[in-house]
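Protocol step 6 of 9: fold each sequence in the batch and record its structure tokens directly after the sequence line. For illustration, a two-sequence batch is reproduced in full.

Sequence one:
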Amino acid sequence: MNSFVKGILVGVGIGLVVAPMRGDEMRRLLSERFEEMRGYLPENEQMNQYVQQVTDRVSQTSSDLKDYAQQAVSKVKETGSNLGDLAQQATTTVKQTGQDVAGTTKQAASSAKQSTPSNT
């Protein structure tokens, strides 16, 4: 809103400067318009309250975002740890399964060797 009011003031000022008038007339009119526009601006104390409210909200939002970021980091670390644990379990299971297959294969080969009559 503050930029809007400033824009209006600048626009009025440019319009008045470009308009064909005598210098003293122009200054008087500019002064009147300036005083009129000045009445639309909030008082200094009000402006300070607005600034303080915005500052407080920005600070609160910043704090909230920081908390959310920390929670996200914790979740990512927890998920990474869980994935690491699952990977270790999967590795152990694969190794055990490989050993079981190797043992079963050896037993099958042994049984097959014993059950085949030897030709010698």
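Sequence two, same batch, same settings:
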Amino acid sequence: MKKLQCSLILLLICVCINSVSADESNVNNPESSAKSPTTNLWQGFYAGINAGYGHNAGNIDARGAGGVKSKDEEHSFIGGIQVGANRQYGDIVVGIEADFNDSQLEDSESIYADYGYAEDYYHHDSKVDWFSTLRGRIGYAPHQNLLLFVTGGAAMGRIESKSRFEVDYTTYDAWDTSWSSSARDTRFGGVVGAGAEYSVASRWSVKAEYLFVDLGTKTNVVNGTYVNGDAKTYSVKNKGQFSTFRLGVNFRF
């Protein structure tokens, strides 16, 4: 995954440099500029790549686990590909876009409880392995080369969650015990966002975009039994919500 992430970032940088160079050559070449379209700049099909980071915050909520909570919210790399199509009506642009993204977004929560005779430890992890969206877009072009847009639609992704419980008796180590559970499931939800796209050459454009993805809430129930026979049950709610901030490059066909 790290090789894929580095490759996407390097490819994004190279494409941006190439796009700017192509634009400068058009400016220095009057004949090329004359041949560039001046209307319906955003019309048609396009494909591209994106890279950025995501924030997965406060998604874990353990019920029935008393004690002091601590959270670890991580910012992580995301990157992927997108394809889409636009129709332009004067300054108004409407379209549809689909994307698929690799993700390393993680969120974790730890809980510690000290009862004097025993100490309880809870640890929960949530990770977004990948996500994909299918969105409509509507935008406004205040200038020929600039497009401001809002977007929204459906999302899906795979989330992996893990829970572990440990009890450590201070006076009788033989009663120490632990148990764990894990789940991995593909979820469906929604996505909304906004961004801006700028045409840097006749067929190339760069964009900056924010998306908020909600893949729904799932509750995992963790059941266990102490060595002395007492049962223990608690539930972990995972909301599957995260924000992404990304840059991208598109090529229009």
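Proceed to step 7 once all outputs are recorded. Observation for sequence two: The two ends are 30 Å apart (CA to CA).
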